[in-house]
Design goal:
There is one protein chain. This protein is of the alpha+beta class and 184 residues long. Among the domains are: 73 residues, Terminase, small subunit, N-terminal DNA-binding domain, HTH motif (Arc Repressor Mutant, subunit A, Orthogonal Bundle); 51 residues, no CATH class. It is built from eight helices and four strands, in the order αααααββαββαα. The chain has a two-stranded antiparallel sheet with strand order 1-2. A two-stranded antiparallel ribbon has the order 3-4. A hairpin with a 2-residue loop joins strand 3 and strand 4. The two termini are 27 Å apart.
Length: 184
């Protein structure tokens, strides 16, 4: 993210810091406090809401969000692909098992989609006398989170109004950044 010296939008220092902070997690109250404003609680929330509607702040948020999206090549297609990797992961992609036990597949056998859904893989060995016990752990990212992300993207639950205003997170910014400017 840009530093305070890279403020090409004519914002006050605190406003510019607010823009930078807001783009980290889309939490207006937190960004307001981190920017150095003194309000707390409901007052911070209301002040952040007003700041998000400031025309100069909106211009800066949209432009800086677009820079981030471009820098990291974030596209709706990539986001949907990652949600799908999580939501449609299947235990059979990672291991084989039968009555005799479980055998994890080698990393070279995993597809890119399967590998992307892995949150953690670890091995622990303990020795008890002359015996060694090997403990393998494979943890996937949340399948429910992946499916919920896809459902939200596809508006399966009729919640599209959640994306209609600036300040509702990345989906709102992406939709505004990717639209041609009507005033141009």
């Amino acid at each position: 993210m840009a530093n305070a010296l890279d403020n090409p939008y004519g914002l006050e220092d605190k406003q510019w810091r607010f823009v930078q902070e807001y783009l980290t997690d889309f939490n207006g109250s937190r960004a307001y406090r981190e920017a150095g404003y003194k309000a707390r609680g409901n007052a911070a929330e209301a002040a952040a809401w007003r700041l998000l509607r400031n025309a100069k702040v909106q211009v800066a948020l949209k432009a800086e969000a677009e820079k981030l999206l471009d820098r990291y090549a974030v596209t709706p297609e990539k986001v949907v692909r990652e949600y799908a990797r999580l939501g449609f992961s299947d235990a059979r992609h990672y291991a084989d098992w039968d009555a005799d036990g479980v055998i994890l597949k080698a990393s070279t056998e995993l597809s890119d989609d399967a590998a992307a859904a892995i949150a953690e893989i670890s091995e622990e060995q303990r020795t008890f006398g002359e015996s060694t016990v090997r403990n393998l752990k494979l943890k996937l990212h949340s399948k429910v989170d992946g499916l919920n992300g896809l459902a939200k993207y596809l508006d399966l639950f009729g919640e599209s109004k959640a994306f209609s205003e600036l300040g509702q997170g990345l989906a709102s910014l992406v939709s505004q950044v990717r639209k041609p400017d009507a005033s141009a």
